[in-house]
Amino acid sequence: MKPGTVGMYGGKFLPCPHMGHVYAMIRASTMVDELHVIVTYDEAYEQKLCEDGCIPYIPVRVRLRWWTQLTKDMPHVHVHAVHQPETGEMADWHIGAQGILAAIGKPLDAVFSSETAYTPIFGELYPDAQHILIDPKREVYPISGSMLRKEGVLKHWNMLPAIVQPHFVKKVVVVGTESCGKSTLVRNLANLYNTTYVEEWGRTYYERLGNCEDITLPEDYPEIAFEHKYHEKVQGAKANKVLFIDTEAIVTQYFSKLYVGKRQPILDEIARLQQYDFWLFLEPDVEWVDDGTRSFGEEQVRQENNRLLKELLEEFGVRYHSISGNYQERLEQAMVHVNELLGRPVVKNHEMK
Ligand SMILES: NC(=O)c1ccc[n+]([C@@H]2O[C@H](COP(=O)([O-])OP(=O)(O)OC[C@H]3O[C@@H](n4cnc5c(N)ncnc54)[C@H](O)[C@@H]3O)[C@@H](O)[C@H]2O)c1
Questions:
Q1: Model confidence, pTM
Q2: Can you list the domains of the chain with their CATH numbers?
Q3: Which residues lie with the beta carbon below 6 Å from any ligand 1 atom?
Q4: Less Cβ crowding at N or C end of the chain, within 10 Å?
Protein backbone atom coordinates (compact mmCIF):
# COMPACT_ATOMS: atom_id res chain seq x y z
CA MET A 1 0.00 0.00 0.00
CA LYS A 2 1.04 3.59 -0.57
CA PRO A 3 2.68 5.45 2.34
CA GLY A 4 0.38 7.22 4.80
CA THR A 5 -2.36 4.62 4.56
CA VAL A 6 -5.24 4.76 7.00
CA GLY A 7 -7.15 1.65 8.08
CA MET A 8 -10.22 0.88 10.17
CA TYR A 9 -11.12 -2.19 12.19
CA GLY A 10 -14.55 -2.16 13.89
CA GLY A 11 -16.96 -4.25 15.92
CA LYS A 12 -19.03 -4.23 19.08
CA PHE A 13 -16.58 -6.47 20.92
CA LEU A 14 -19.30 -7.68 23.22
CA PRO A 15 -18.80 -8.87 25.92
CA CYS A 16 -15.13 -8.05 25.39
CA PRO A 17 -12.29 -8.11 22.89
CA HIS A 18 -11.14 -11.73 22.53
CA MET A 19 -7.87 -13.12 21.15
CA GLY A 20 -9.31 -13.33 17.62
CA HIS A 21 -9.96 -9.58 17.77
CA VAL A 22 -6.48 -8.90 19.15
CA TYR A 23 -4.96 -11.00 16.39
CA ALA A 24 -6.95 -9.16 13.70
CA MET A 25 -6.05 -5.76 15.15
CA ILE A 26 -2.32 -6.58 15.33
CA ARG A 27 -2.26 -8.00 11.80
CA ALA A 28 -4.12 -4.90 10.56
CA SER A 29 -1.72 -2.62 12.42
CA THR A 30 1.22 -4.05 10.47
CA MET A 31 -0.43 -3.28 7.12
CA VAL A 32 -1.22 0.43 7.49
CA ASP A 33 0.49 3.56 8.78
CA GLU A 34 -2.49 4.52 10.93
CA LEU A 35 -5.12 2.17 12.29
CA HIS A 36 -8.41 3.17 13.90
CA VAL A 37 -10.15 0.64 16.14
CA ILE A 38 -13.86 1.46 16.35
CA VAL A 39 -16.03 0.16 19.18
CA THR A 40 -19.61 0.53 17.97
CA TYR A 41 -22.37 0.63 20.54
CA ASP A 42 -26.13 0.70 20.98
CA GLU A 43 -26.79 0.37 24.68
CA ALA A 44 -30.40 -0.87 24.63
CA TYR A 45 -29.69 -3.48 21.96
CA GLU A 46 -26.57 -4.71 23.75
CA GLN A 47 -28.33 -4.97 27.10
CA LYS A 48 -30.94 -7.19 25.51
CA LEU A 49 -28.26 -9.28 23.80
CA CYS A 50 -26.53 -9.87 27.12
CA GLU A 51 -29.79 -10.67 28.92
CA ASP A 52 -30.53 -13.32 26.28
CA GLY A 53 -27.05 -14.78 26.72
CA CYS A 54 -25.35 -15.70 29.97
CA ILE A 55 -23.20 -12.66 30.65
CA PRO A 56 -23.70 -9.34 32.43
CA TYR A 57 -23.95 -6.25 30.23
CA ILE A 58 -20.55 -4.65 29.67
CA PRO A 59 -20.82 -0.87 29.03
CA VAL A 60 -19.02 0.59 26.02
CA ARG A 61 -16.72 2.59 28.31
CA VAL A 62 -15.29 -0.66 29.68
CA ARG A 63 -14.77 -2.12 26.19
CA LEU A 64 -13.13 1.13 25.06
CA ARG A 65 -10.88 0.98 28.11
CA TRP A 66 -9.75 -2.56 27.24
CA TRP A 67 -8.91 -1.52 23.68
CA THR A 68 -7.06 1.52 24.98
CA GLN A 69 -4.97 -0.73 27.24
CA LEU A 70 -4.37 -3.25 24.46
CA THR A 71 -3.06 -0.56 22.09
CA LYS A 72 -1.38 1.84 24.52
CA ASP A 73 2.12 1.04 23.23
CA MET A 74 1.08 1.29 19.58
CA PRO A 75 1.27 5.02 18.79
CA HIS A 76 -0.17 4.58 15.29
CA VAL A 77 -3.30 2.82 16.61
CA HIS A 78 -6.21 4.97 17.80
CA VAL A 79 -9.37 3.84 19.56
CA HIS A 80 -12.84 5.43 19.31
CA ALA A 81 -16.37 4.64 20.46
CA VAL A 82 -19.04 5.33 17.83
CA HIS A 83 -22.79 4.99 18.25
CA GLN A 84 -24.40 2.75 15.66
CA PRO A 85 -28.08 1.88 16.04
CA GLU A 86 -28.84 -1.84 15.82
CA THR A 87 -32.35 -2.11 14.40
CA GLY A 88 -31.46 -4.73 11.80
CA GLU A 89 -31.76 -2.20 8.93
CA MET A 90 -28.96 -1.38 6.47
CA ALA A 91 -29.48 2.26 7.43
CA ASP A 92 -27.78 1.39 10.75
CA TRP A 93 -24.49 0.78 8.95
CA HIS A 94 -24.77 4.09 7.09
CA ILE A 95 -25.30 5.97 10.36
CA GLY A 96 -22.37 4.05 11.88
CA ALA A 97 -20.13 4.85 8.90
CA GLN A 98 -20.87 8.58 9.22
CA GLY A 99 -19.82 8.46 12.87
CA ILE A 100 -16.74 6.39 12.05
CA LEU A 101 -15.55 8.75 9.29
CA ALA A 102 -16.18 11.76 11.53
CA ALA A 103 -14.15 10.16 14.35
CA ILE A 104 -11.24 9.32 12.02
CA GLY A 105 -11.40 12.66 10.22
CA LYS A 106 -9.65 11.55 7.04
CA PRO A 107 -10.31 9.26 4.07
CA LEU A 108 -9.93 5.51 4.60
CA ASP A 109 -7.67 3.32 2.48
CA ALA A 110 -8.41 -0.03 4.12
CA VAL A 111 -11.19 -1.63 6.14
CA PHE A 112 -10.37 -4.84 8.01
CA SER A 113 -12.66 -7.67 9.11
CA SER A 114 -12.89 -11.45 9.04
CA GLU A 115 -16.29 -11.42 7.28
CA THR A 116 -16.43 -12.03 3.51
CA ALA A 117 -20.12 -11.08 3.76
CA TYR A 118 -19.14 -7.50 4.68
CA THR A 119 -17.49 -6.80 1.26
CA PRO A 120 -20.62 -5.39 -0.48
CA ILE A 121 -21.63 -3.06 2.37
CA PHE A 122 -18.06 -1.88 2.91
CA GLY A 123 -17.92 -1.21 -0.86
CA GLU A 124 -20.95 1.05 -0.48
CA LEU A 125 -19.84 2.79 2.70
CA TYR A 126 -16.15 3.19 1.93
CA PRO A 127 -15.89 3.08 -1.89
CA ASP A 128 -12.25 4.18 -1.92
CA ALA A 129 -11.11 1.67 0.68
CA GLN A 130 -9.99 -1.90 0.16
CA HIS A 131 -11.70 -4.58 2.29
CA ILE A 132 -8.91 -6.74 3.72
CA LEU A 133 -9.94 -10.07 5.21
CA ILE A 134 -8.05 -11.44 8.18
CA ASP A 135 -8.48 -15.12 9.01
CA PRO A 136 -12.02 -15.44 7.58
CA LYS A 137 -12.24 -19.06 8.77
CA ARG A 138 -11.19 -18.03 12.26
CA GLU A 139 -8.56 -20.76 12.35
CA VAL A 140 -5.94 -18.96 14.42
CA TYR A 141 -8.30 -18.22 17.30
CA PRO A 142 -11.54 -20.18 16.84
CA ILE A 143 -13.76 -17.94 18.93
CA SER A 144 -16.55 -15.38 18.47
CA GLY A 145 -18.44 -12.83 20.55
CA SER A 146 -21.62 -14.87 20.26
CA MET A 147 -19.85 -17.98 21.66
CA LEU A 148 -18.74 -15.92 24.65
CA ARG A 149 -22.24 -14.52 25.17
CA LYS A 150 -23.95 -17.89 24.79
CA GLU A 151 -21.52 -20.17 26.62
CA GLY A 152 -20.00 -17.72 29.07
CA VAL A 153 -16.45 -16.43 29.28
CA LEU A 154 -15.20 -19.02 31.80
CA LYS A 155 -15.54 -21.78 29.21
CA HIS A 156 -13.24 -19.88 26.84
CA TRP A 157 -10.86 -18.40 29.41
CA ASN A 158 -7.73 -18.82 27.26
CA MET A 159 -9.38 -16.84 24.47
CA LEU A 160 -9.54 -13.75 26.71
CA PRO A 161 -6.65 -11.25 26.68
CA ALA A 162 -4.81 -11.13 30.02
CA ILE A 163 -5.98 -7.55 30.65
CA VAL A 164 -9.63 -8.61 30.22
CA GLN A 165 -9.56 -11.72 32.44
CA PRO A 166 -9.57 -9.93 35.85
CA HIS A 167 -12.97 -8.39 35.03
CA PHE A 168 -14.55 -11.84 34.90
CA VAL A 169 -12.78 -13.49 37.85
CA LYS A 170 -15.28 -14.99 40.32
CA LYS A 171 -14.59 -13.84 43.86
CA VAL A 172 -15.21 -16.39 46.60
CA VAL A 173 -14.85 -15.00 50.11
CA VAL A 174 -14.44 -17.25 53.14
CA VAL A 175 -15.59 -15.89 56.50
CA GLY A 176 -15.91 -17.17 60.05
CA THR A 177 -14.74 -16.51 63.58
CA GLU A 178 -11.33 -17.40 64.96
CA SER A 179 -9.81 -20.82 64.37
CA CYS A 180 -12.45 -22.27 62.09
CA GLY A 181 -10.03 -23.36 59.36
CA LYS A 182 -10.40 -20.37 56.99
CA SER A 183 -6.74 -19.89 56.09
CA THR A 184 -6.14 -23.58 55.42
CA LEU A 185 -9.30 -23.92 53.35
CA VAL A 186 -8.50 -20.80 51.31
CA ARG A 187 -4.97 -22.01 50.54
CA ASN A 188 -6.17 -25.52 49.68
CA LEU A 189 -8.87 -24.22 47.37
CA ALA A 190 -6.43 -21.88 45.62
CA ASN A 191 -4.04 -24.79 44.99
CA LEU A 192 -6.84 -27.11 43.87
CA TYR A 193 -8.24 -24.61 41.39
CA ASN A 194 -4.75 -23.56 40.33
CA THR A 195 -5.30 -19.92 41.17
CA THR A 196 -4.40 -17.14 43.58
CA TYR A 197 -5.78 -16.15 46.99
CA VAL A 198 -5.78 -13.27 49.46
CA GLU A 199 -4.67 -14.02 52.97
CA GLU A 200 -6.37 -12.60 56.05
CA TRP A 201 -4.66 -9.25 56.26
CA GLY A 202 -5.40 -8.62 59.95
CA ARG A 203 -3.39 -11.65 60.85
CA THR A 204 -0.40 -10.60 58.74
CA TYR A 205 -0.70 -7.10 60.21
CA TYR A 206 -0.40 -8.32 63.81
CA GLU A 207 2.25 -10.91 63.00
CA ARG A 208 4.33 -7.97 61.79
CA LEU A 209 3.79 -6.20 65.12
CA GLY A 210 4.71 -9.35 67.05
CA ASN A 211 1.33 -9.86 68.77
CA CYS A 212 -2.19 -8.43 68.90
CA GLU A 213 -3.24 -9.03 72.50
CA ASP A 214 -3.81 -5.68 74.29
CA ILE A 215 -2.00 -3.66 71.63
CA THR A 216 -4.63 -3.23 68.90
CA LEU A 217 -5.65 0.37 68.18
CA PRO A 218 -8.86 1.56 66.45
CA GLU A 219 -6.89 2.97 63.53
CA ASP A 220 -5.48 -0.49 62.72
CA TYR A 221 -8.80 -1.71 61.33
CA PRO A 222 -9.35 0.68 58.41
CA GLU A 223 -5.70 0.12 57.45
CA ILE A 224 -6.24 -3.64 57.52
CA ALA A 225 -9.36 -3.27 55.33
CA PHE A 226 -7.56 -1.00 52.80
CA GLU A 227 -4.55 -3.31 52.51
CA HIS A 228 -6.83 -6.29 52.16
CA LYS A 229 -8.70 -4.61 49.29
CA TYR A 230 -5.42 -3.70 47.62
CA HIS A 231 -4.33 -7.35 47.74
CA GLU A 232 -7.67 -8.42 46.27
CA LYS A 233 -6.87 -6.23 43.28
CA VAL A 234 -3.30 -7.54 42.96
CA GLN A 235 -4.23 -11.22 43.31
CA GLY A 236 -7.40 -10.80 41.20
CA ALA A 237 -5.21 -9.63 38.30
CA LYS A 238 -3.33 -12.93 38.42
CA ALA A 239 -6.25 -15.26 39.16
CA ASN A 240 -7.28 -18.17 37.00
CA LYS A 241 -11.10 -17.81 36.76
CA VAL A 242 -11.61 -17.70 40.53
CA LEU A 243 -10.02 -15.82 43.43
CA PHE A 244 -10.27 -17.09 47.01
CA ILE A 245 -10.37 -14.45 49.71
CA ASP A 246 -9.86 -14.97 53.44
CA THR A 247 -12.14 -12.50 55.33
CA GLU A 248 -13.38 -9.06 54.27
CA ALA A 249 -14.60 -5.75 55.74
CA ILE A 250 -17.51 -7.16 57.77
CA VAL A 251 -15.21 -9.58 59.58
CA THR A 252 -12.77 -6.70 60.16
CA GLN A 253 -15.66 -4.68 61.64
CA TYR A 254 -16.55 -7.63 63.83
CA PHE A 255 -12.95 -7.77 65.16
CA SER A 256 -12.96 -4.02 65.70
CA LYS A 257 -16.01 -4.48 67.95
CA LEU A 258 -14.41 -7.38 69.81
CA TYR A 259 -10.97 -5.87 70.35
CA VAL A 260 -11.51 -2.12 70.67
CA GLY A 261 -15.22 -2.12 71.47
CA LYS A 262 -16.28 0.11 68.61
CA ARG A 263 -17.73 -0.04 65.18
CA GLN A 264 -16.09 2.06 62.47
CA PRO A 265 -18.18 3.93 59.86
CA ILE A 266 -15.53 3.53 57.17
CA LEU A 267 -15.68 -0.25 57.50
CA ASP A 268 -19.48 -0.15 57.15
CA GLU A 269 -19.01 1.86 53.96
CA ILE A 270 -16.48 -0.60 52.53
CA ALA A 271 -18.79 -3.47 53.50
CA ARG A 272 -21.65 -1.84 51.59
CA LEU A 273 -19.53 -1.26 48.48
CA GLN A 274 -17.66 -4.56 48.21
CA GLN A 275 -18.97 -7.24 45.89
CA TYR A 276 -18.31 -10.95 46.03
CA ASP A 277 -19.78 -13.72 43.91
CA PHE A 278 -19.99 -16.27 46.68
CA TRP A 279 -19.76 -16.29 50.49
CA LEU A 280 -18.67 -19.37 52.42
CA PHE A 281 -19.29 -19.24 56.16
CA LEU A 282 -17.28 -21.66 58.29
CA GLU A 283 -19.04 -22.84 61.43
CA PRO A 284 -16.76 -23.05 64.48
CA ASP A 285 -17.14 -26.80 64.99
CA VAL A 286 -13.51 -27.79 64.48
CA GLU A 287 -11.01 -27.83 67.34
CA TRP A 288 -9.84 -24.38 68.51
CA VAL A 289 -6.12 -23.90 67.90
CA ASP A 290 -4.15 -21.20 69.68
CA ASP A 291 -1.67 -19.88 67.12
CA GLY A 292 -0.47 -17.02 69.30
CA THR A 293 -2.67 -14.28 67.74
CA ARG A 294 -6.05 -15.62 68.95
CA SER A 295 -8.07 -14.72 72.05
CA PHE A 296 -11.59 -16.14 72.14
CA GLY A 297 -11.23 -19.91 72.60
CA GLU A 298 -13.80 -20.73 75.31
CA GLU A 299 -16.67 -22.69 73.77
CA GLN A 300 -19.41 -20.37 75.02
CA VAL A 301 -17.50 -17.28 73.84
CA ARG A 302 -16.86 -18.97 70.52
CA GLN A 303 -20.57 -19.67 69.98
CA GLU A 304 -21.55 -16.16 71.07
CA ASN A 305 -19.01 -14.63 68.65
CA ASN A 306 -20.28 -16.85 65.88
CA ARG A 307 -23.78 -15.54 66.48
CA LEU A 308 -22.51 -11.94 66.50
CA LEU A 309 -20.71 -12.36 63.19
CA LYS A 310 -23.78 -13.92 61.56
CA GLU A 311 -25.91 -11.05 62.83
CA LEU A 312 -23.52 -8.55 61.30
CA LEU A 313 -23.47 -10.36 57.95
CA GLU A 314 -27.24 -10.49 57.92
CA GLU A 315 -27.41 -6.77 58.69
CA PHE A 316 -25.54 -6.19 55.42
CA GLY A 317 -27.88 -8.54 53.56
CA VAL A 318 -25.14 -11.09 52.87
CA ARG A 319 -26.40 -14.46 51.63
CA TYR A 320 -23.74 -16.84 52.89
CA HIS A 321 -23.52 -20.62 52.63
CA SER A 322 -22.62 -22.35 55.88
CA ILE A 323 -20.07 -25.10 55.92
CA SER A 324 -19.48 -27.41 58.85
CA GLY A 325 -18.05 -30.78 59.79
CA ASN A 326 -14.50 -32.06 59.82
CA TYR A 327 -11.80 -30.72 57.50
CA GLN A 328 -12.50 -33.29 54.80
CA GLU A 329 -16.23 -32.52 54.81
CA ARG A 330 -15.57 -28.79 54.70
CA LEU A 331 -13.32 -29.12 51.69
CA GLU A 332 -15.86 -31.29 49.87
CA GLN A 333 -18.77 -28.93 50.59
CA ALA A 334 -16.69 -25.94 49.48
CA MET A 335 -15.72 -27.68 46.23
CA VAL A 336 -19.33 -28.48 45.41
CA HIS A 337 -20.20 -24.78 45.72
CA VAL A 338 -17.17 -23.59 43.75
CA ASN A 339 -17.74 -26.12 40.96
CA GLU A 340 -21.32 -24.92 40.67
CA LEU A 341 -20.19 -21.30 40.55
CA LEU A 342 -17.68 -22.07 37.78
CA GLY A 343 -20.18 -24.18 35.85
CA ARG A 344 -18.13 -27.33 36.33
CA PRO A 345 -19.77 -30.70 36.84
CA VAL A 346 -20.00 -31.84 40.44
CA VAL A 347 -18.55 -35.33 40.14
CA LYS A 348 -18.41 -38.29 42.54
CA ASN A 349 -15.92 -37.72 45.37
CA HIS A 350 -15.91 -34.16 44.03
CA GLU A 351 -12.90 -34.82 41.87
CA MET A 352 -11.76 -31.99 39.64
CA LYS A 353 -12.59 -32.07 35.96
N1 LIG B 1 -20.38 0.81 10.08
C2 LIG B 1 -19.27 0.11 9.93
O3 LIG B 1 -18.46 0.39 9.07
C4 LIG B 1 -19.00 -1.07 10.81
C5 LIG B 1 -17.87 -1.86 10.61
C6 LIG B 1 -17.64 -2.97 11.42
C7 LIG B 1 -18.55 -3.25 12.43
N8 LIG B 1 -19.63 -2.46 12.59
C9 LIG B 1 -20.62 -2.72 13.62
O10 LIG B 1 -20.15 -3.65 14.55
C11 LIG B 1 -21.17 -4.65 14.72
C12 LIG B 1 -20.52 -5.91 15.07
O13 LIG B 1 -19.68 -6.34 14.05
P14 LIG B 1 -19.15 -7.78 14.13
O15 LIG B 1 -20.26 -8.70 14.45
O16 LIG B 1 -18.38 -8.02 12.89
O17 LIG B 1 -18.23 -7.55 15.41
P18 LIG B 1 -17.46 -8.44 16.39
O19 LIG B 1 -17.29 -7.56 17.57
O20 LIG B 1 -18.01 -9.79 16.60
O21 LIG B 1 -16.08 -8.62 15.58
C22 LIG B 1 -15.32 -7.50 15.22
C23 LIG B 1 -14.44 -7.86 14.04
O24 LIG B 1 -13.55 -8.90 14.39
C25 LIG B 1 -13.66 -9.95 13.46
N26 LIG B 1 -13.49 -11.20 14.21
C27 LIG B 1 -14.37 -11.73 15.10
N28 LIG B 1 -13.91 -12.90 15.59
C29 LIG B 1 -12.70 -13.11 15.02
C30 LIG B 1 -11.73 -14.16 15.12
N31 LIG B 1 -11.90 -15.23 15.92
N32 LIG B 1 -10.61 -14.06 14.40
C33 LIG B 1 -10.41 -12.99 13.57
N34 LIG B 1 -11.30 -11.96 13.43
C35 LIG B 1 -12.43 -12.03 14.15
C36 LIG B 1 -15.03 -9.82 12.84
O37 LIG B 1 -15.07 -10.34 11.54
C38 LIG B 1 -15.23 -8.34 12.83
O39 LIG B 1 -14.61 -7.81 11.69
C40 LIG B 1 -21.91 -4.71 13.42
O41 LIG B 1 -23.24 -5.15 13.58
C42 LIG B 1 -21.90 -3.28 13.07
O43 LIG B 1 -22.94 -2.66 13.80
C44 LIG B 1 -19.87 -1.40 11.82
A1: 0.91
A2: 6-154 (3.40.50.620), 169-350 (3.40.50.300)
A3: 10-13, 20-21, 23-24, 40, 84, 86, 93, 96-97, 100, 113-115, 125, 134-135, 138, 141, 143-145
A4: C
